[in-house]
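# nightly structure sweep
# worker-07 picked up a monomer target from the shared queue
# config: single-sequence mode, recycle default, output format = structure tokens
# input follows
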Amino acid sequence: MAEKFERHRQPWKAEEVAKLRTLAAKGKGLKEIAKALNRSEESTKERAKTDGIGIAKLR
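# output follows
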């Protein structure tokens, strides 16, 4: 069964974007960042792409 995300289709808050930037800068993978933000991997990837944030490749 697929995981449920409480933040599904909710707008991104400034704090979430800041946390995304911080985790990406630390070299964390997409799966780990998405879980920390309680967002889907797809949503996290799209937001990172929109903001020009590079995320480490999945290992």
